[in-house]
Every structure is written in C-alpha cells, then in structure tokens.
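Q: Can I borrow your eye for a moment on a structure tokenisation matter? Would you mind producing a protein record, from residues through to fold? Write it directly below this note and I will take it from there.
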Amino acid sequence: MESFKVIEIKKNVLHQNENQADALRLQLKQEKTFLLNLMSSPGSGKTTILLKTIELLKDEFRIGILEADIDSDVDARSIERTGTSVVQVHTGGMCHLDADMTKQGLAGLQWKSLDFVALENVGNLVCPAEFDTGASKNAMILSVPEGDDKPLKYPLMFSIADVLLINKIDTKPIFDFDLDAVVERVKELNPNITVIPVSAKTGEGMDRWAAWLRDEVNRWNGHPKY
C-alpha cells in the first residue's frame, strides 16, 4: 500500500465551483435575471451574434453583456457602441470563466436591474465546457468553416449546451459541411439540444434564435404566460 496521499486537485476545484455556481443561479432566479453562457471557438461569430441579438431584443428586455477575454477590450468596445451595458472581464491568462469570476463581472454590471445578461465566454472549445458559470442556460456556436466533425472531437461542450447555433450557414455551399451529420452527431450526445442554423451576416435564422431566447428569458423571469 502506498504511504503517500493523493489529492485530486481538479476534482476539488470543480466541486467548489459547482457549489458557487448553484448559489449564483439561485440568486439570479430570485432577482429574475436570466444569464446566458455563450461558448465557442475563436472566430465563430459570438460578438456578431450578440450584436444582432441586442438589435432584435433591445426593445423587450433590459440587456447587459459580459465580455470575457484573456486580454484586450475589442469586443466590449463593439458592444458599447450599441448603448448596451457591458463589462470586460480579463481572465489573467485562464482559458475560461468560472462561477466566481462570473459573479465578479456581474457585480460590475449592476445586474439586478437587468432582465437578460449574456456572457461571452473565452473562445475555446475545451475549458469553458468544464466550468459551470452559474448561467441559466448554456449556448454554443459552431461556424460552418470549422467543419462538421467538431462534435466528434469536442463532445463535452455539445453535451452541456441547451442550444447550438450553426453560424455562417450562408457559406455552406463553399465548404464541405454536412449539416445533417452535425445534427445527428449532436443529438446522439445531447437529445434535448435545440439546433438553429443561422447567419449573423444575412440574418437567416436569427428570428428563430430570438424567439428561443425570448421564451427562455420570460420563463426564467416568471412571465405570467409561462
């Protein structure tokens, strides 16, 4: 028998984060603020999707945005130009946000006055999927140029997402991208996921995305219709 102790650091860290995430989610529910955790690889179109989403829903909800990046404030400046409340969160080199970092970002956003907050997580298909941010729902973007094999290579993020946006669908004729195969692979991993092909550039599918989000925000916030 070994005479030394083995400490599972990652397991302990994840367990502590899950407790913090559950506490934050409860607080968000009590204050009637919906938090969306938006994940994807770099360049998939997260910021552009958010800009279009703000345009579609700004007259219905009080919206705030958390922009998470290892460095820079490029995306936050793009959001700021819309007049939407935005906070830039620098992770100090970490490739994801956890519940505590999300809570700090929300404090800077004065989130209790908002109906809907979107967290644009760090561009990465691995780390963000491992850490619960305390979000009400998880969304993921897969862009057509990334290829249709991503659910096979990075199954965890597809498994935890409530909705998958397949962005840049207008480029499908250019790339060897099998939409039906993606949907089939994703549904095998996550039968309850909603898949919405969209184009942030042309607007295709964005009304359907806005409708999904509208229903989820209203349901979370206790709208009488729901």
Notes: The longest strand covers residues 63-69.
